Each structure stands twice: as C-alpha cells, then as structure tokens.
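Below is how a single chain appears once it has passed through the pipeline. First comes the sequence as given, then the structure the pipeline wrote out for it. We keep one example in the README because the format questions we get most often are answered faster by looking than by reading.
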Amino acid sequence: MLNIHARSFFAKAVGPLGARLARAGVTPDVITIIGTVGAVTSALVFFSRGAWFAGTLLVWAFVMLDLVDGAVARASGRSSKFGAVLDSSCDRIADAAVFGSLAWYFARHDERWMLLAAMLCLVLGSLTSYIRARAEGVGLTATVGIAERADRLIIVLVGTGLSGEPFGVPYVQAVALWLLVAASTITVFQRFATVYRQAKAEESVPAEA
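Resulting structure:
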C-alpha cells in the first residue's frame, strides 16, 4: 500500500545518483548484491544481539539501495530479465535475514510469543511474494494487498528501531510484529482472492463462446 505511493517519489529522488553511478560504470546487479550483503550482515550482527536501533539504521540504509539499482538500470539502459530475477531473489534473502535474526534473538532469550510473531512474519511475507510470482508465471496478476514488501519493512524496522536505545519505547516491537502478522495474513487472502477471480473469469470466456 505504501509501496504504491512512496516508490515513485523515492525513485525520482535517487534518479540523479543513479545517473552518476551509471556514468561511472557501476552496474545495477553490483548495487543489488552490495545492498543484500549489507542488509543481511547488519541484521545478523546487530539484530541477533538486540542492538535494535543501530541495526535498524544500517538495514534501512542498505535496503534503500534497492531503489538505487533501479535508477542505475534506467539511466544505463541495462535492465535485464536476469537482473529482475536477481533483484527479487535478493529481496527475499534480505527479508529472511531480518526476520530470521529477530527470531534467533527471541529464541535465545526464551521470548516464545515474539519468536512466533517473527516466524509468522517470515513465512507470510514469503508466501505473499510467492503468490505474486506464481500468478505472474501463469499469466495472472496479484499485486494487491495492504502489506507489500515496503510496508512490511517499514513496520518491522520502525517498531524494532523505536524499541532500542535511545528510545526504548515499551511494547512497540511486539505491536509492530503482531500488526504485521495480521496485515500479512490479510494480504495473502487478498492475493488468493484476486487470482481466483481472474482464473474464473478466464475459464468463463471459452464457455460463453
């Protein structure tokens, strides 16, 4: 939902940077890989030991490179099918590192309900992305939902960052994770419903003919 309104704005904001990097010979795939490695490393190093605020800043900084690689691709004309698959796959890796690191921390500190929330976020987020990819693979679309990737990252990172020093807001991380569980569950059903309607509409065309 936030992805629809915010992505175009940030894409325009990083356009000049993308043009400069393209002129310097930097490829979109290199930026994608750097962003993913940085996000994964930051999550594993900081989130796994409860350094919430520092981890959030670093993960967010590297995740934002996802916009820069698109700007470089547009400026250089180097968009490719491989780059699209690489970008999508790296997104899944970074997301798994974020929620996996949170789950690791909660498991080590015997916070069972938080562990459950983190694991549900991980599974539901992956399922949300899989439904879209599978639908596109059979010629349908499933881009609907109240919790796309940008929404999920904003919710978990804001909640996690505010729970750490110097803020230390009580319960904000728990609220964010369980809110995300609910939003992701709704998104899964929204995407299944959309695909179902499209499939039924296609099936009815030969019958009417």
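The chain has one domain: 2-201.

See the next section for the split statistics.
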